[in-house]
Amino acid sequence: MRYLFSVILCLWPLWTMAQDWEDRQVFQGTDASRTLRILSSTDTSFFEPIIASFLAKTPELSVEYLVIGTAEIDQRFRQAPDRYDVVISSAMDLQLKLANDGFARRLGGVAHPDWAQWRESLFAFTSEPAAIVVNRAAFEGQALPRTRQELIQALRARPDVFRGRLGTYDVRDSGLGYLFATQDARASETYWRLMEVMGSLGTRLYCCSGDMIDDLSDGTIAVAYNVLGSYASARQQTDGRIAVILPSDFPTTMMRTGFVSSQAQHPQDAARFVRHLISLQSDPVSKDSLPLPPLSTDSAGQSAIALEPALLTYLDGLKRQTFIKEWVSAIVQP
What we know:
Elements: H1 2-18, E1 23-27, E2 35-40, H2 44-55, E3 62-67, H3 70-79, E4 86-89, H4 92-100, E5 117-118, E6 122-124, E7 128-135, H5 148-157, H6 159-162, E8 166-169, H7 175-187, H8 190-200, E9 204-206, H9 209-217, E10 223-228, H10 229-236, E11 242-245, E12 253-254, E13 257-260, H11 267-279, H12 286-289, H13 317-331
Parallel strand pairs: 2-3, 2-4, 8-9, 8-10
Antiparallel strand pairs: 1-3, 4-13, 5-6, 6-13, 7-10, 7-11, 7-12
Helix pairs in contact: 5-8, 8-13
C-alpha cells in the first residue's frame, strides 16, 4: 500500500498534464512545495493579472491555473475534490449546487454582501451580463436590434443574410449556456420565439463565448446570442468589426463565483486567494488587477441572477431533461 501511494504521488504531475485542458499555466513561486491549484472556467488572459497581484503579496507560493468548460468543472471536481484548492466558475447554479452538497469550505469573517455569497462558502466577485453580439457589416445600413423582439424582426426581414450565420451556446454541453437559457426562459416567452426563429435559420452551436466572438470577427456568423458580455466588450475595444448589445427588454446578468474546496490540500492559501478576490472590489488599483467587471450594486436587484436556492430548480434531472428537449426542438430543426 505504501508503494502504491508513492506511485500515485509520482504519477500525479503526469496525470495533470494528460488532462484535456483548454489552458494550463503555472506561475512559479520560490517554494515548489506550495502549489495552489485553481480550477477555472475563466480565460487565463483575464485571470493572469489577478494571480499576479496575489503572488506579489505571497511570492513563495506557486499557482497552477487550469481552464476548462463550466460543465466539465462540475464533473471533474466532483470526481476528485482533493486535487483542486480553489474553484472558479461562471455557472452560478452548478457552483451553488457544489457548495450546497458540501464541497465548499466555510470561511468565517469575510466582509461581503449577503446577496453576493452563500453561507460563507461561495463568493461572487464579478457582475457580467449576457449580450447579443453582432458583426457590424451584416447590419450596414440597418438599425442594430436593441431588444430580443427587434432581433426576431431583423432575422425575419432578411433571412438570406442570416441563414447559417447565427450562433449561441449548446446548452447540452455548456453550464453557463444552460444557466443563461433557463433564466431567459423564466423571464419571458420571447426567448422561445427567438429560439424558434434562430432554429429555422440553421443556428451554429458553440461551447464557449470565445469561439463565437472569433467567428463574429471574421464574418463566419453575423449574430451571436447570450455571449458573455465581459469577453465581448474586451474584444470590441480592439476589434471594431463587432458591436455588443445589452438587450433593453430584460437583462440577464450572472455573477462569477469562487470557493475553497472542502478537501483542499492548501486550505489556508486557498482561503487567502478567495479573500484576495473579494478585496479587489475595494482596491484602488483594481482596474489593473481585476480586468473583469467588478460586482455592481445592481446585482442585488431583480436584473441579476440571484445567488439563492431557486437556482437549483433547473438542475433537477427531470426539469433539465424537459428543458433540453424543448430547446432542441426549437433550435435544432431539419
